[in-house]
Amino acid sequence: MQPNNSVTEFVLLGLTPDPMRQKIVFVIFFIFYMGTLVGNLLIIVTIKFSRTLESPMYFFLFHLSIADTCFSTSIAPRLIVDSLSAKKIISYNGCMTQVFALHIFGCMEIFVLILMAVDRYMAIRKPLHYPTIMRRQVCIILIVLAWIGSFIHSMAQIILALRLPFCGPNLIDHYCCDLQPLLKLACMDTYMINLLLVSNSGAICSNSFVILMTSYFIILRSLRNHSAEGRKKALSTCTSHIIVVIVFFGPCIFMYTRPPTTFPMDKMVAVFYTIGTPFLNPLIYTLRNAEVKNAMRKLWHVRITSESKR
User: Fold this and answer.
1) Cβ of 25: how many Cβ atoms within 10 Å?
2) Transmembrane segments in this chain: where (predicted)?
3) DSSP per-residue codes, 74-127
């Protein structure tokens, strides 16, 4: 579904034109991507096969790791390969596919973070009704709705992108395809499209951030009525979630809630939430969570022991 224009491919300018720096980019982001895959897949496998991690919080963490893995995979491999390429060419269809993947998995991450906040709110504020409210069937329905919502959001983004006519130049001053850099190349007045972008992606990021921070503020205030042990455990969990929220939403709000202007730090800010956040999430949720670390030790100890006995 390509509009009538003369552009069939785009050239990504990447993070830097310097060959030496491009090699550094390759090494750094290859390590980051491998760390993202290993960390998130370790969480996915551990939650899937561990009997001690069957609560709603870990059910949502399982889907957060899936979203993180897919989100990073939609960006990182291309960035890594392009860092060693002389000409970073991406087809029109490939560019549109990347826009779709970037937004569906990015939006899914936002929705899962909201569901995790809801889960912690119910667990701490309504502990007696928590097992009934957050039963397995409800969690499955919430995740399905999150995927549907992410698909609708991504379809809105791709429809906006497909309506843009391109007649040259075809140089994207970025390392990936997204609506902001594409708007700069469109042969039309993009004011209304940018307004729609801000009201869609910008509103989702800003409103979700406000909802999340408000909910965690309420949760933290309510901890005063808990025992010292319960307060310590809940505080550790909520602190991890708050770190993830700030790390992810800060750059997103910066990128999607402003006029179509370019700033020197745009690419680095985008790197932080497209590459950095999926890498940091497994570290934050494992290093600060004793239950996940213990489950990992038990699971992999059992598997190694069973393999050695064969």
Assistant:
1) 21
2) 24-45, 57-80, 100-118, 138-162, 191-213, 234-256, 268-287
3) TTHHHHHHHTT-SS-EEEHHHHHHHHHHHHHHHHHHHHHHHHHHHHHHHHHH-T
Name beta bridge partners: 297: none
* Band (1; pLDDT cuts 50, 70, 90): very low
**Owning domain of residue 223:** 9-309
User: Going by DSSP bridges, is the β-strand pair 171-172/9-12 parallel, antiparallel, or unpaired?
Assistant: parallel
Q: Which of 174, 35, 154 is nearest to 102 (CA)?
A: 154
Q: Is the residue at 261 inside a domain?
A: yes
Of the candidates 199, 170, 191, 192, which has an alpha carbon nearest to the alpha carbon of residue 182? 170
CATH code, domain carrying 21: 1.20.1070.10
User: Residue 68: CB partners within 8 Å, gap ≥ 6?
Assistant: 36, 40, 109, 277, 278, 281, 282
Tokens of 64: 């957060």
Q: What is the DSSP letter of 185?
A: T
Q: What are phi and psi of 170, to 5 degrees?
A: -120, 25
* Burial degree of 135 (CB within 10 A; 0-12, 13-18, 19+): exposed
Residue 1 within a domain: no
| Burial track 162-180 (b if 16+ CB lie within 10 A, e otherwise) | eebebeeebebebbbbbbb
Q: How many domains does the chain have?
A: 1
Is the pTM of the predicted complex or chain greater than 0.85? Answer: yes
Tens digit of each residue's pLDDT (9 = 90 or more) over 32-65:
999 999 999 988 988 888 877 888 988 999 999 9
- Cβ atoms of 276 and 247 within 8 Å: the answer is yes
DSSP 224: G
What is the H or E stretch that residue 275 is in? none
In a domain, 236, yes or no: yes
Q: Which residues are 172's β-sheet partners? A: 12
**Tokens 């402003």 identify what position?**
258
